[in-house]
Amino acid sequence: MPTANSLSNAPQYNPYYSTLNLLMLLNLLLLIVGLALVVLGANWLTDGAASIAKRFNVSNLVIGLTIVAFGTSAPELTVSLTSALNGNADIAIGNVVGSNIFNILVILGITAMICPLAVSRSTVRVEIPLTILASLVLLFLGADQLFDGEANKLSTGDGLTLLAFFLIFLFYTFSIAKSDPQAEVGTEVKVKKSYISILMIIVGLAALVGGGRLFVDASVSLARLLGMSESVIGLTLVAAGTSLPELATSLVAALKKQSDIAIGNVVGSNIFNIFFILGVSATITPIRTLGITILDYAVMIGAAVLLFFFSRYYGRLTLKRWEGVLLLLLFVGYTAYLLQQ
Questions:
Q1: Residue 185's pLDDT is what?
Q2: CA distances from 137 to 70, 140, 161 (A)
Q3: What CATH number has the domain spanning 60-186+227-340?
Q4: Are strands 117-118 and 153-154 parallel, antiparallel or unpaired?
Q5: What's the predicted TM-score (pTM) here?
Q6: What is the pLDDT of residues 123-141, one digit of tens each?
Q7: How far is Cα 3 from Cα 155, in angstroms, rounded to an integer?
Q8: In whole angstroms, what is the distance from residue 267 CA to residue 180 CA?
Q9: Contacts of 20 (CB under 8 A, 6+ apart)
Q10: What residue segments make up the domains of the chain, in order of their start?
Q11: Helix H or strand E segment including 197
């Protein structure tokens, strides 16, 4: 028969912690639903727009470089723009910086562990250095306090500067693609009935907007419930979630021995994230970058530099398995540091 002491020492029911756990579970569920809507919405919008473009005899090359490229980065754009407009600037900038870190350290780390990735000379000579340049430009524009003592902010002028860089990158991409006789083969477009295409665009846009709002609101609520800053949530959970399309694309490409797609997908996404996504977001509304530290910028830049040295010098145009393991371990260490803070 239980004694008075044993009853007093038994775990007591605490309604506060039960409610807290329920709220965390609910927000996590809303986070997943919001992300699913964003990804599905991006696919529907892309397929519908590509179908209509094909009906107007737009080439596969142009569709691939514009509509499809936009579609793969739509989750990051939707989340960052929604966050900026809602006043959650740390999630907006953290999403991009965190996605770029995740893309190299995790996506390329995992794909290289599955299968060593051959890197083309043009990627090593141009695209990866351009990724490093994009990261440095973001540091120079976003870390104002480091250079002139002012509050860290991406102003409207900074956003326009990033968009100018994006136009240069887009011009370069078109030039390279047109000089490649196989460029037309890359994107297959299924032509659908006009009303179906229009419906897909409308539903896709609605899913993007609604899912993005749901995803950001759930992220903010989850950060507050966990006692974490919005910047840490943006750099980790939000960044990983919006990078899922790139992860799936690179994994499939690696399994099919298509190294150029696996690496090009990541490198192109990183450039797109900084120049286009932050460019559009900052042009529409200035973004204060108070929660992003020099360490976060340094890890983003360092990951790109490490990819360059691994590809150019150590691997001799190949990203090897042990290098993939090292990239993944660096991400684990960086994430552990963030969570300890």
A1: 44
A2: 21, 5, 9
A3: 1.20.1420.30
A4: unpaired
A5: 0.80
A6: 888 889 999 999 999 999 9
A7: 68
A8: 19
A9: 225
A10: 60-186+227-340
A11: helix 194-226
